[in-house]
Every structure is written in structure tokens, then in C-alpha cells.
Amino acid sequence: MNILGLNAYHGDVSAVLVCDGRLVAAVEEERFVRIKHVAGFPAEAIHACLRIGGLPASAIDCWAVSRDPRAHLWRKAAFLLRQRPHGLAGDRARNLVRVRNLPGRLAGVVGLEPADIRPRLRFVEHHPAHLGSAFFVSPFEEAAVCAIDGFGDFVSTSWGVGRGPSIDGIERVFFPHSLGMLYLAVTQYLGFPHYGDEFKVMGLAPYGAPDFADRLRSVVSLRPGGRFTLDLRFFRHASEGVAMTWESGAPTIGPVFTPALEALLGPARHPDDPLEPRHEAIAASLQRVFEEAVFHVLRHVRQATGQRRLCLAGGCAMNSVANGKVREQTGFDELFLQPAAGDNGTALGAAFDAWHAGGGARGFVMEHGYWGLSFPDDEIEQAIREEAGRLQEMGCTVRRESDPGALCRETASALAAGRIVGWFQGRMEWGARALGNRSILADPRRADMRDILNAKIKFREKFRPFAPSILVEAVDEYFEGAVPDPFMMQVYPIRPAQRSRVPAVTHVDGSGRLQTVSRTSNPLYWQLISAFAAQTGVPMLLNTSFNENEPIVHRPAEALDCFLRTGLDVLVLGSMVLEKAGIGAAAAPGPPA
What we know:
Helix content: 25-40%
Mean pLDDT: 94
Structural class: alpha/beta
Radius of gyration: 23 Å
Low-confidence stretches: 584-593
CATH topology of the domain at 377-587: DHBP synthase
Number of strands: 23
Shape: globular
């Protein structure tokens, strides 16, 4: 049975192909159209899934969509009649029309007739799709499952128990109460207005003290049974509605917070204003209060289900700082997250929900995150030929190194000499994190490497941290209380004795967002880090996404363009090695102490 899962007409639209219960492809539309978090319809992602699977559209037995227009209709109607929020009904109605017209849109994209699509279309409620995206690809036969996000199909939080091919006993927290909306409101208040900017606030939080935590606790009340409520005086979404754009293009969300939040915390920051200690303290306070609320939910889930294992999903599950504390704070022994825990991952959950609803058995475990397209040597060589003029102008050398061992040793030497490397290999990553196939790599021992990367390549805020990719065998040597995490979804303390050895990946609070690399999950990346360890004694690299204020590079041409317009020194594009003239160890920071 061939199932194509879709997240459509939302942010982070995506497509997933599952064949006979096994994941074949998982891709995000933003990689193709080059718009971060793109909303609308995932046409290019659908084509990519079919290409990877080698299937015509006519071979798809089920089109599973992570939306259900019929879900909780009576609750939606009652809320609209009671609250009459300005503009909300119209926005939702327009989006609903698009969802109902999916058969026609799908048919036009894949060259079929609507009549071919309609009987094969399955709508899966948003939160069950989130829950399924975590549990159905986990290694657990039985586990608690929880999803926490902004909203989807009128729900913000849900939990239940996964057993084999089903998830039972689902409990829900409904609109308008949402921990995702809490984080969004304060993110906007702090002057970060774009869709998905919450991760910036998470990175800013360690710079401040939670001096405003008591004030923010008045915004969200923790209730019995793992529930919570927002004080809606501080939010617009229930009374006024919030303008949201889910057309083809960057998703937008209008202001969520009201003047009451400014009365509570002081004047809101304009995006162009400098960051002050007050803003850092508010970020720290938000992270503290958010964690308290999340752990309140999860402690109840642990008690109510009796499970020792947890699968976690939803946009709030992208808060890697909170994730790293889940086992310590909630009583769960094991935690599983897949790398697209946000709305992109609902396509995955919808596809597996459809598989199990049709009687399919469990059998697949997601052990790595490399589910996108790869590019053969001839496409890489063609991209290099097309950039021959720019390469010549910059005095770049181009050579091939066909031996993987030699390629890794030479790249490790360049990294140890202070060069910054673009590393483009194999299949594209699924999810928000670069996991060693579309990565910018650097030496974690160099104290000023973070500032160099932010200023000359990433062109982003100086407080943003970079992640360590570490050999799975060395986790305990460098991290406290950590468990292997190939998806870079959890933050842990770096051991105090090791922090001075790897300052470029040690955040201001002594933590690091961990990615473990094993020989089985990514053999080439593991070999590269091993070569660096052999030369330096440090089994770790600084890893950040291969991009510059854009989606992660997808095609060889995008990698080349990023290499040529930024301060990258070396580009390893498959077996091809490109190096800029006049760049060497002397141009890099001095060797670490």
C-alpha cells in the first residue's frame, strides 16, 4: 500500500511517502521554493516524494491530509457564537474552502482527475497526526504520547497511550488556551515578529535571569489534571482574532498580545531596537514559565498513563532546552522525538495513521533523518560548470577526491586549521536541523568561531548558539545526563571540565544542543568526526545549517551560491572539493590554548 501524507494550507507544508508501512521519503516544500516555513500547498514536495519512490501518482492508494474540517465542529460553532472574534470566522472559512478543494488541487498537480483522488483522500485530525508522527516511528511498542503546539483543528495540547498500531484515550486542551500561543505572544513582544522566531527567544533566554517569572505566571494558570488556562486579557486570538496567512508564500501571524502585556512587562521592543538586559530577563522568564507549564502537563501524563516512555510532538516540542530536562523533571525514563516535530511532521503522522487504519502492522523505526533527495555526481559537476565564471573570478580551486577516507582526513585537516567548511552529502535532512548532510562545519575548540560564523557567514544575531555534533561513543565524556540523540532535539549541560576545550559550541549557560553521530546512521559524517578526533583529540565538530538567512540549501547550485557569497573557505560537494584562493590557517583564528 502506497500512502502519501500531506501537511497543506498551513505553515511548514510538507509531503511524506510511506510504502507498505516503511518510510521512503519525507520532504519540506521550503527547500524547493526557497521561502522559510512556506505555507500553501506542497506541490514540489509531492513530486519529490514520487521521484524518490519511483512511483506515478496513479500508484498512490491513499492521500492522507493532516487536517480534518469536521473535527470539533460543535465546539468551534459554540465559540464563534459566544465570542464573535473579529475576522477569525472569515479567515477560517477561507482556509476551510481550500482544504475542501484539495481533490481538485491535488489532481491538477499530479496529472490525475479529481474523481481519481476523492475516494482515496483521508483527512486526519491535526493532533492525532502530531501524536502519530512521534509514536508510530518510535522504537517503543507501548508509550505515553503527547503533543503541544499553538493550535490545529481547535486543539492545542493532547495526550494518550500508544500501543502497537493505535493511540488510545486521547485527552485534549482546546482553543483558546495554548502554551504555543503563550510563547508566540512574548516572542512578538520581544521584537521577533516572523513565523518560527520562537527559537531565537530560546537562544536569548540563557543571557538573562528570570526576574519577570512571577509576572508571567499570572498569564497562565496551571489546573488539575495536567490542564492550564490563559488569562485572555493578554491575548487577541480569542476576542479579536489574529490575522493569519496560509497562502503560497511566507506564513504570517498578526500581533497576538494586547496592551495588557505591555502594562505587565513594560514597553514592547521594536524589531530594530537594541536588545537590553530587560529583554534578556523576559526571555529567561518566559522559558522558565513555559517549562513549568510543559512539565505540569507531562507529569500528569506520566501519572495518568503509568508509562515510563514518552513520545513528544508539536511545535512546542521543538524547544530543545525543555526537551533536555523532560526525563529529570517528569519521571519518564525514555523520550523519543523525530526531527520534524512541528507542523511539517503532521504529514508523517497522517501517512502512518492511514497505514495503521488500513490494518497495517508496526515495523518501521526512524533511526536517522535523511529522507530527502540526493544528487548524483553528474548533477554536481554540471552545477560547478555553470558557476565556472564566478569560481575563476574568486580564484577557487576545484578537485575530486574519490576516496572517502582521504576526503574525510583532508577535510578534518582543513577544519583543524581554522577553515570553515560547507559539507554537502547524500540525502537531504528532514526537519529543521542540519544533521551532517547539509551542514556548515567548524572547529569547536576556537573561542571566537561563533562570532566569526554569525558575522561573516550566517549574518544573524550574535547571541545565537551553534550545535555540537559528537561521536555517539563520546557522549558521556562531554555531556552530563545525556542520552544519544541523532536529531539534535535536546539540550544538555556540557561537563564543566570540557567547556574550555569546546567553547564555540558551549552556550553562555554551559549547555549544548546535542547531536550524536553513529557509524550506522551517517557513516561518512561519523568518519569525518573520527578523523578530526584523531588529529585534535576532540571527537566533535561545530555544526550549523548550510544556509544564510534562507532555507537550508537543497541543490548543489544553492550550496555553490552560498559558498561564493559568504565567508566559507571550503566546499565539499559530494566528492568534489572547492577551495577559495588565499584562505588558509593564517587567515583563521590562532590555535586554541
